Amino acid sequence: MSILDSKIPEGPLADKWTKHKNDINLVNPANKRLIDVIVVGTGLAGGSAAATLAELGYNVKAFCFQDSPRRAHSIAAQGGINAAKNYQGDGDSTYRLFYDTVKGGDYRSREANVHRLAEVSTNIIDQCVAQGVPFAREYGGLLDNRSFGGVLVSRTFYAKGQTGQQLLLGAYAAMNRQIGRGKIKMYTRHEMLDVVKVDGKARGIIARNLITGEIERHSAHAVVLGTGGYGNAFYLSTYAMGSNVTAAWKAHKRGAFFANPCYTQIHPTCIPVSGDHQSKLTLMSESLRNDGRIWVPKHKKDVEAIRNGSLKPTDLAEEDRDYYLERRYPAFGNLVPRDVASRAAKERCDAGYGVNQTGEAVYLDFAAAIERYGKEQAYVKGLNVDDKKLVTDLGKKVVENKYGNLFQMYEKIVDQNPYETPMMIYPAVHYTMGGLWVDYNLMTTVPGLYAIGEANFSDHGANRLGASALMQGLADGYFVLPYTIGDYLAHDIRTGEIPTDSKEFDEAEQKVRADIDKLINNEGSKSVDYFHKRLGKIMWNKCGMARNEKDLKEAISEIAALRDEFYKDVFVPGTQDEYNEELAKAGRVADFLELGELFAKDALEREESAGGHFREEYQTESGEALRRPEFQYVSAWEYKGKPSEAVHHKEALEYENIEVKERSYK
Amino acid sequence: MNLTLKIWRQKSANDKGKIVDYPVSGISPDMSFLEMLDVLNQELIEKGESPVVFDHDCREGICGSCSLYINGRAHGPQTKITACQLHMRSFEDGETIYIEPWRAEAFPVIKDLMVDRTSFDRIQQAGGFISVNTSGNTQDANAIPIEKENADKAFDAATCIGCGACVASCKNSSAMLFVSAKVSQFALLPQGQVEATDRVLNMVKQMDEEGFGNCTNTGACEVECPKGISLENIARMNREYLTASLKG
Question: Is ipTM beyond 0.85?
């Protein structure tokens, strides 16, 4: 019997959130001043939560490892944010956004959470516009939309290819207002290294000042983690260099269950790996699939000719190209969801049709879009539509206006002009749907410890749709947590300040110090990166886009062995009383080495294919993912000393409002 | 490629600091500039020496962390990119490359190539926001149409990544481009009008208190800005400031 209580409110789906808000406890404004909340991470989720909680009157302490809250990796999100505004009048609705998200997640997310997300999505756009976020607009002055993968409507709001940046700067501005008023105390260049529990409740954190190396104790009545995902377990990913699992993992070790770690999003359109020196991968926004067509050559001889440079892709005739997404999925074409697009690219490359030297790249081609837009402009301007050069020039201008910064980014990295020759792309690790298990109130299994944004598991199931990460981060931080946390904090109005000189804080601090001592005094011979790269290779080769029982079992034992080797042979230079990036990295990699094993264990347990989790043993005859009804549950893992001993708990998923069907994009 | 790096090393804010020479070899032209520094750092770690400290995070030109002054230019020889987007194909085999931190009174060095830019945050805290609570009960997002030209200009100003290249490039260490980008973003939008007077006065006041210099219109900031923030913004801020001063 499951010990997980998701606390989903009773009643019809569409009324649950409203009813819940009416039922839960409130804290009166005077009492809010007596309550402290710690928020770790200042991305869209953490930043928006910190700002809103401070506005409400709580005393907020916010932490980030970057030198400014504005630099959290939400800033790198490119394409957009979904909202069921139906400004385009194309049939969108709250229900449809809810439906698309549940289906997109391959029926592995919670109905009630997703419906709430769809409900508050429209508030996000209103709120952001009021904050001065400069979304793209049409000539009439109203907001523009575009379409993203896995949906049949245009509901994505955007600010060129920098939507995440503009939304984060909005949240940062809201935080700044509260920092200026003294309601948020901001701790930059600080890393959380443990959660402190007093009487079973989260009552504070241990943090390290990254500049001085000082270990600090911070107490509060509740702790909120908005610390992002764990994709850097793969070493190469589109995450920032500093993104890590440490805060979530320490919380896990203190009793927070970790849910669905194997659900990882591998994004189809990233710049391919160029060599061993590579430190990170760069995403090319999914919005490009609105206008770009994905293809590889139909014939092996052309693949060879392209690889050895004797044939240019632009010279290959239309009939010799395989637009494999349009071929396999006529209804959605190039706009199939990410998991489907990634697997299809892998399938073609595994079959020998990859178009670069490593054989791991496909084309993303804008020639047709340039021609289409060019003709449209020529008509509008009354110019000669048969003048090819004119049409191409006009078309390039339109494409530049839409995707200019992405094209520029591509050209700087690859040294090829994507207006002239198709882009080369390949899938890369991009987002993690798994994360800390939370109930409907976004509270983990540790009372008073909350997880929001990518750090939790709740809304995206086994696959996240494009432009939904920004939506969820801001929904959690602006519109969900500020309500639900009040229900818990209402019991703390008489508690008073939490002292930091208790035995629990002593114990946690000592543990943190011991871990650091162990790493810094280890007389090993290999750098932290050496181990991180090796872990990444295991993860990518055996827990990547396609998984099977044999590989996963090998991954489990290889990661455990690598972890032992790490503790025997890692070398961390310098001291702990200074800025020491290697020391910070060592701590993060140590946690990835534990998480990686749990990840593989979770993938092994899930004997089905769902969303981003593809088990080769479970596929349809045409190679599509085969879901199995007996796995219609959330896996939540309880820490018991080692990843191998983690205890498996299940939360059954029930679909009362959506019929669970084969997920087809044909 | 083989290169000679001349890198600023400074143990702490109080240390005097000096340029130290490091030869590096086997660099691929496809590496990014920061990956080249990664190679150097791995070698230093293997030799038991302390790696070169520099700020970096997203490595795709958007977080604004990286802040290297390369051969006398903020973010190096190419325009409209950050140091993390710079690739080694921009350099010649055998070249000597100078790498220094941002230099400005308001950006004290923390260690090696890493500087403290919290002065930028404090300027934003002085007024870089619209005072609207996050209740979600604002009016509908399409209630106020905004002329596309103004919306686009506001966006262009808002793309500032807060890296500080403008300050590092300015002979006066002025932060006018940075401050004017935020002032302009809000000045161009109807939502920003209500607090326009206080915003520009407070942000400029904070800018001066932080020790940034004055603007003498040399335009170096615009040339070196990785996001191409236009000098027009400074002109707009000056107009806003004048109007606000007359009102105030």
Answer: yes
**Is A599 inside any structural domain?**
yes
Query: What are the two backbone dihedrals, phi and then psi, of residue B111, each rounded to the nearest 5 degrees?
Result: -165, 135
Phi/psi for A2 (5° steps) reads -70, 140
Burial class (CB in 10 A: 0-12, 13-18, 19+), B143: exposed
Report pLDDT digits (tens) over A593-610: 999 999 999 999 999 999
- A288 shares its domain with A396: yes
A236 lies in a domain? no
- B91 vs A628: CA distance, rounded Å: 55
Distance from B247 to chain A by nearest Cα, in Å?
Answer: 23
Residue of B nearest to A65 (CA): B57
Per-residue pLDDT of A505-536, as tens digits, reads 999 999 999 999 999 999 999 999 999 999 99
**Of the candidates B40, B181, B61, B215, the residue with the CA atom closest to the CA atom of residue B113:** B40
Mutation target among A129, A282, A430 for the B interface, most CBs of B within 10 A: A129
**Structural domain that includes position A315:** 268-427
In the sheet that holds A184-187, the strands lie side by side as A184-187, A59-63, A36-40, A222-225, A449-451
How many CB pairs below 8 Å do chains A and B form together? Answer: 211
Strand bridging mode A633-638 / A647-652: antiparallel
pLDDT tens digit sequence for A314-335: 999 999 999 999 999 999 999 9
Residue corresponding to tokens 């060019």: A374
Domains detected in chain B: 3-111 (3.10.20.30), 118-131+146-247 (1.10.1060.10)
Q: Do A409 and B64 touch (CB under 8 A)?
A: no
- Chain-chain contact of B162 with A180 (C-beta, under 8 angstroms): no
Would the CB atoms of B35 and A277 count as touching at under 8 Å?
Answer: yes
Confidence class of residue B248 from pLDDT cuts 50, 70 and 90? low
Same domain, yes or no, for A403 and A545? no
Please tell me whether residue A255 adopts helix, strand or coil conformation. Answer: coil
- Interface check B79 vs A, CB under 8 A: no
Choose the closest CB to B65 out of A67, A136, A581: A67
Q: Is B30 on the interface with A (CB under 8 A)?
A: yes
Chain A, nearest residue to B109 by Cα:
A211
Of A372, A397, A427, the residue that ends a domain is: A427
Mean pLDDT of chain A: 96
Looking at beta carbons, which residues of chain A come within 8 Å of B140? 126
Say yes or no: A281 and A413 in one domain.
yes
The residue from A427, A455, A487 where one domain ends is A427
CATH number at residue A374: 3.90.700.10
CA–CA gap between residue B159 and residue B63 (Å, rounded)? 11
**Which pLDDT does position A2 carry in this prediction?**
61
| Same-domain status, A633 and A512 | yes
Regarding whether A509 and A612 lie in a shared domain, the answer is: yes
Structural domains in chain A (count): 2
Express each pLDDT in A358-393 by its tens digit: 999 999 999 999 999 999 999 999 999 999 999 999
Catalytic residue flag (residue A338):
yes
For residue range B136-193, list pLDDT tens digits in order. 788 999 999 999 999 999 999 999 999 999 999 999 999 999 999 999 999 999 999 9
What is the bridge-based pairing of β-strands A215-219 and A201-209? antiparallel
* CB proximity under 8 Å: B 129-158 to A: 129-142, 145-148, 151-152, 154-155, 158
Active-site hit among A338, A343, A464, A627:
A338
Nearest to A143 among B114, B125, B142 (CB): B142
Q: What is the pLDDT of residue A266?
A: 96
Rounded mean pLDDT of B234-248? 95
In a domain, A494, yes or no: no
A549 and A404 within one domain: no
In terms of domains, do A276 and A413 share one? yes
* Residue A579 lies inside a defined structural domain of this protein: yes
Q: Is residue B101 within 8 Å of B117, Cβ to Cβ? A: no
Amino acid letter at A168?
Answer: L
Question: Average model confidence (pLDDT) for chain B?
Answer: 96
CATH number at residue A506: 1.20.58.100
Measure CA B217 to chain center: 18
